[in-house]
Automatic annotation (TrEMBL):
Pfam (any one): LrgA
Domain of life assignment: Bacteria
Transmembrane segments: 29-46, 58-77, 83-105
InterPro entries in the record: LrgA/CidA (IPR005538)
Protein name according to UniProt: CidA/LrgA family protein
Record keywords: Cell membrane, Membrane, Transmembrane, Transmembrane helix
Subcellular location: Cell membrane
Protein's membrane topology: Multi-pass membrane protein
Stored PANTHER family: HOLIN-LIKE PROTEIN CIDA, HOLIN-LIKE PROTEIN CIDA-RELATED
One CC-aspect GO term: plasma membrane
Amino acid sequence: MINTLLLLLVYQLVGELIARSLGLPVPGPVLGMALLFLTLLVRGRVSDEIRTSAGHLLQHLSLLFVPAGAGVMLHLQRVGDEWLPITVALVISTFAGMAVTALVLKTLTRKESAEGAES
């Protein structure tokens, strides 16, 4: 598990270095995860160690929401003052996420059906 955490931190560091050196408006950890994803795509598989460690991290994912919840409580007055744009952003992003998920599912289902028909 330590090796996997080290790997995640290295990718995060590389992403942060790229974002800061190129002045990109994307967070370094997002770039790091994209690089990790590309690495796993090129390798064509996920090692058992990474799979196990990721499973352990996902089991405790709810702990990562504690800082966000504390931040909301800290800035509750601002949230109250700006409730309309926050609500609009939440509703639009929720529907956009559902639409993209539906389109991806539809595309993958259609592709899987076509591959099944060929066999």
